[in-house]
Amino acid sequence: MNVCICVSGYIRIGLVFAAWRASQTPAVFVPLYSVSIALDGVDGWLARRLGQSSRFGAWLDVVVDNLGRGMLWGQLFEWGWLVSALEWCVFVCNHSTRGNHWKSSFTCSPRLIQAIMTNGLRTPLGTWVVSGLHCLPLWLYGLQRDLLSLPLWVRALGTTLLVAGRLLALSAEMWCLWTHVEYLTSDEPEERKN
């Protein structure tokens, strides 16, 4: 496990908690949360580039993602905990059955899920999905607090594109949950029967 890559995960945790603490002060919240999102991409890229990917790093990355988004969804809406709960369930399902290579384990999935997950979400469609996951709650935070001084059509278009990306993510999440339930309810493999 590379210490530098894990340090960025711990820095992200600190940024998420600092952002949560400052959630009522947009001038502080938005930069803290945005840097956390940016570091998510940087630490993954560095891990792959340096050949330092690890099971713990993959796990920590998604934990911090879910922690940050869960905090923000909870701040935005009374029902925000539902989005967070779904993301945590998918995390548990993916990491318990697919391990740290979960992003590349969808070769037998429906075509839409394969297209989303191709190359570990590093395609135009995958980028759209990740934008819906990460950017939609921040965009909605900006809309709720009237921070986006943009024409109405731009706000509507931005919201529509990010919601569509989040719905595509939801389709992949539901597939993950469905296949996990099928796995758990199927005949147990021999090694699990003992």
Automatic annotation (TrEMBL):
The UniProt entry lists the main location of this chain as membrane
Among its keywords, does the record have Lipid biosynthesis? yes
Identify its membrane topology class: Multi-pass membrane protein
Q: Tell me the domain of life.
A: Eukaryota
Query: What are the protein's UniProt keywords?
Result: Lipid biosynthesis, Lipid metabolism, Membrane, Phospholipid biosynthesis, Phospholipid metabolism, Transferase, Transmembrane, Transmembrane helix
* UniProt keyword Transmembrane helix, yes or no: yes
Annotated localization: Membrane
Stretches of the chain forming a coiled coil according to its record:
none
A single Gene Ontology biological process assigned to it is:
phospholipid biosynthetic process
A single Gene Ontology CC term: membrane
Listed GO MF terms: phosphotransferase activity, for other substituted phosphate groups
Q: Which PROSITE patterns match?
A: CDP_ALCOHOL_P_TRANSF
Give the family this protein belongs to, as stated in its UniProt record: Belongs to the CDP-alcohol phosphatidyltransferase class-I family.
Name used for this protein in its record: CDP-diacylglycerol--inositol 3-phosphatidyltransferase
